[in-house]
């Protein structure tokens, strides 16, 4: 599992490799929790690439409900079909109703598409943004991998999708959903691991620049920031500096490009007050 994921460019530790292996072996979802930008969403993409399967993504948000996540009816097409049938003189009400609520007018949302696509990887992104009702609905669906459409009957997945749920921990997700899943906490990586990720994702960036950017980000995380930068921001910063033609970074260039890595005014002000030159000198030339 580790080798297959690393071939996609996604580096994993032993705990995550085992969790992914067990998710496939036991057909259980993986619940990934941690700060934004630490690689939770990227795991689903890497799994899809490693398994040569499509990735189906459900982005959660406040107020999402079953019709937006599971299925809905294509009302405009149903109305057009009804008018066409009336123009053709069709008067059989039962026939019309059967046609209007046939499969061709059913709009499959991400959850239903995942149940009907074998194999596939289903990403339920930022489940912590959804409300309790949707969380309970999702728990029920993941327990049986079936859904009942009153007009069509019960639809069941022939083979359950590989499911990755992510949470940025803006609120606590209920224990019932976590118990259904294999759990993995995503922490910020150490220097060596983060540097390896940057080098893997940005092979064209000089070794010196990648090392400097990684070291600066590690130092910034030690500060009392509103939003410590994740690995995604480290990659963004190195990519921005490389786009400017830099092969290494000095304090002036680091300050000018802080917007690539810090996203809050308070964090920018705090970073500008640091002695970035001294931080850069910690690892030497």
What strand line-up does the widest sheet have?
Answer: 2-5-8-1-9
The string of secondary-structure elements, in order, is HHEHEHEHHEHEHEEEHEHHHHHH
Number of helices: 15
Distance between the termini: 37 Å
- The outline comes out as elongated
Spans of 5+ residues with little confidence (pLDDT < 50)? Answer: none
Binned strand content: 5-15%
How helix-rich are the residues, as a percent range? 40-55%
For the secondary structure, the number of strands is 9
Describe the protein in words.
It is a single chain. The mean pLDDT is 90. With 285 residues, this protein is an alpha/beta fold. Helix 11 (207-221) packs across helix 12. It is elongated, with a radius of gyration of 24 Å. The two termini are 37 Å apart. A hairpin with a 3-residue loop joins strand 6 and strand 7 (153-156). The strands form 3 sheets. The chain has a 5-stranded parallel sheet with strand order 2-5-8-1-9, with helices on both faces. Strands 3-4 form a two-stranded antiparallel sheet. A two-stranded antiparallel sheet has the order 6-7. It contains 15 helices and 9 strands. It has helices at residues 2-7, 14-26, 40-51, 66-69, 75-87, 93-100, 110-116, 132-144, 175-179, 191-201, 207-221, 231-243, 251-256, 265-272, 276-281; strands at residues 30-34, 55-59, 71-73, 106-108, 121-125, 146-149, 153-156, 162-167, 182-186.
Task: Tell me the layout of helices and strands.
Elements: H1 2-7, H2 14-26, E1 30-34, H3 40-51, E2 55-59, H4 66-69, E3 71-73, H5 75-87, H6 93-100, E4 106-108, H7 110-116, E5 121-125, H8 132-144, E6 146-149, E7 153-156, E8 162-167, H9 175-179, E9 182-186, H10 191-201, H11 207-221, H12 231-243, H13 251-256, H14 265-272, H15 276-281
Parallel strand pairs: 1-8, 1-9, 2-5, 5-8
Antiparallel strand pairs: 3-4, 6-7
């Amino acid at each position: 599992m580790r080798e297959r994921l690393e071939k996609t460019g996604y580096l994993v530790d032993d705990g995550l490799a085992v969790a992914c292996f067990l998710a496939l072996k036991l057909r259980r979802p993986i619940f990934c929790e941690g700060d934004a930008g630490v690689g939770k969403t990227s795991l689903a993409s890497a799994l899809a690439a490693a398994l040569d399967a499509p990735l189906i993504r459900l982005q959660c948000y406040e107020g999402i409900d079953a019709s937006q996540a599971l299925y809905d009816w294509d009302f405009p097409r149903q109305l057009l079909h009804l008018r066409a049938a009336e123009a053709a003189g069709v008067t059989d009400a039962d026939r019309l109703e059967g046609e209007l609520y046939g499969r061709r007018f059913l709009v499959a949302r991400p959850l239903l598409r995942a149940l009907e696509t074998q194999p596939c990887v289903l990403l339920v992104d930022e489940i912590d943004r959804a409300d309790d009702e949707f969380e309970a609905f999702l728990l029920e669906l993941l327990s049986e991998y079936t859904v009942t459409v009153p007009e069509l009957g019960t639809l069941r997945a022939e083979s359950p999708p590989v499911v990755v749920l992510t949470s940025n921990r803006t609120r606590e997700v209920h224990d019932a959903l976590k118990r259904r899943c294999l759990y993995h906490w995503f922490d910020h990586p150490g220097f060596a691991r983060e540097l390896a990720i940057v080098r893997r994702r940005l092979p064209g960036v000089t070794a010196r620049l990648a090392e400097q950017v990684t070291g600066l980000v590690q130092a910034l995380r030690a500060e009392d920031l509103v939003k410590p930068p994740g690995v995604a921001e480290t990659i963004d910063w190195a990519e921005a500096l490389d786009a400017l033609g830099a092969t290494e970074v000095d304090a002036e260039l680091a300050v000018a490009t802080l917007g690539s890595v810090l996203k809050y005014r308070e964090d920018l002000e705090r970073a500008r007050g640091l002695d970035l030159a001294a931080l850069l000198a910690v690892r030497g030339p």
